[in-house]
Design goal:
Blueprint: E1 5-11, H1 14-26, E2 31-33, E3 50-55, H2 59-78
Antiparallel strand pairs: 1-3, 2-3
């Protein structure tokens, strides 16, 4: 990882976190997710997400990649509404 690990996103769940991690790695950004179980697991009202981390040197690029990935995901959902 390039620099100290920095949390750049809280994914809604493990699947979303893994998809974002894969997108970052595909763009040559070393990323990791925190899959450590929490005592709050199952309490979605608490707003707990799955953190995605990158090195401090890659934060700006990672945020751009995540924003793009989330926008593409949202655009894909919008076409399904009738």
């Amino acid at each position: 990882m390039n620099g100290e690990p920095v949390k750049v996103f809280d994914a809604a769940n493990g699947i979303e976190a893994e998809l974002l991690r894969a997108a970052l790695v595909a763009a040559d950004v070393d990323a990791t997710i925190d899959t450590t179980p929490s005592p709050l697991d199952g309490l979605t009202a608490m707003g707990q997400g799955v953190p995605v981390f990158v090195g401090a040197d890659d934060v700006d690029r990672a945020i751009e990649i995540i924003d793009e990935a989330m926008t593409e995901h949202d655009d894909g959902d919008a076409g399904d509404e009738e």
